[in-house]
Amino acid sequence: PSPLVVPPSQYWDGDNGAWSSFALRVGTPPQDVRVLVSTNSPEAMVVVPLGCTTTAVNPVPADCANSRGGLFNTSQSSTWQEQGFFGINENGVGFEADLGYSQNAEYGLDTLGLGFTGGPGGPTLENQTIAAIASVSPFYTGIFGLSTQPVNYSTIGNFSAPSYFTSLRSQKLIPSLSWSYTAGAKYRLKAGQYAQLIFGGFDTSRFTSNSASFTLAGDIDRDIVVGIQSIIYSGTTQANLLSTPTYAFIESTDPNIWLPEAACQEFEKAFGISIDESTGLYLMNTTQYAQLEATNAQVTFTLGNSLTGGETVNIILPFSAFALPASYPLTSNDTYYFPLKKAANDSQVTLGRAFLQEAYLTVDYERGNFSVSQCLWVDGAASQIESILSPTYPTNISSPALPASNAAKSSNHLSPGVIAAIVIVVVFVVAAVLGLAYYFFVYRHVPSNAP
């Protein structure tokens, strides 16, 4: 099978930024919703009509249903199979537990497809886990999970439902258990660059290749881990923002960059920002935003597979990547905020969705490795999609298929050097055969001159 390229919705959604979303078709008949990608969630999460009532938020936002990405009504789907109400994690373990997320949801199984009804899209799969929510925090819009982990319903006989991602692979709809994702950036190019999500491949037109390779960690809830070796601020001055290298989890569910307190203090000094006590956010008013934008500052994250040494990659974030628009109900008025959070411990150090505006992430679960690359910004660039083939395919004789080393492509073509060697061998064999034929059929039958 070929890589599955999921079309973006071409909308910018969210109350904690302008995020490029994707469309899902949920239920029977299909109901369209727009959601954000969660690289570490095992399920799809959608907003129900209760989410646009005063029970969930007061006052109800203007154009609430649209601002939340559309609503899914479970009672209007003939294929909805109720499973019950559960939390997204339990006892400090599970999805986003490290960051303190708490969310109850109505879980069920239903049909789930990629893309808008009637538009270009992807497969529709049955019996997919759907988590229906109403509250506006920590999720204002729904999400679409890319995790390999199943959802386990322990209270109803240990029933286990596979994720959409693993279902694609088990049904042989994608060439491998791999995906590539970048969050997109509204501040880039003429009209913004939408997010990109590809199952079983990657797009070489969207990033700069590098030689760094990373291995997946053993913790299934925190597996895409990199070593942050340094963080350098470049603006009116230059400063090292990270005194001690640290490991960080890359994920797209949370928008923030979570760093040790000492590093956050260095960010505060470099950008002149401070926490707003009422919201817990690093808010920026219009004047402060304009001043920071004028400095044209940027921050360079140097990442490696370990805390020191080895091959590394630099991911550069301009100030625009840190100037996220915030709106109601996250804030009472429209403003900007700096997506920085203080990590209480090592398990909270995270490079969230803001980081993935400028980083292209490719993860190969079958080989246990991944790559992180700097995004490219070229208006009108044609996509160059390449496959990541499963190592289980007998025709795949190449090494792990990741863009960092271009090994992710699988090819059955011979290189020019190999072809030349084959030609030389063939010519030698032909010459030898002709020589032997001459000896036996010509030379040995020449009449002797002896008396």
Automatic annotation (TrEMBL):
Membrane spanning stretches: 418-441
Peptidase A1 domain: residues covered: 20-373
Keywords in alphabetical order: Membrane, Transmembrane, Transmembrane helix
CDD domains: pepsin_like
InterPro entries tied to this protein: Aspartic_peptidase_A1, Pepsin-like_dom, PEPTIDASE_A1, Peptidase_aspartic_dom_sf
Molecular function, one GO term: aspartic-type endopeptidase activity
GO cellular component, one term: fungal-type vacuole
Family indicated by similarity: Belongs to the peptidase A1 family.
Identification of the protein by name: Peptidase A1 domain-containing protein
Organism listed in the record: Amorphotheca resinae ATCC 22711
Classification of source organism: Eukaryota, Fungi, Dikarya, Ascomycota, Pezizomycotina
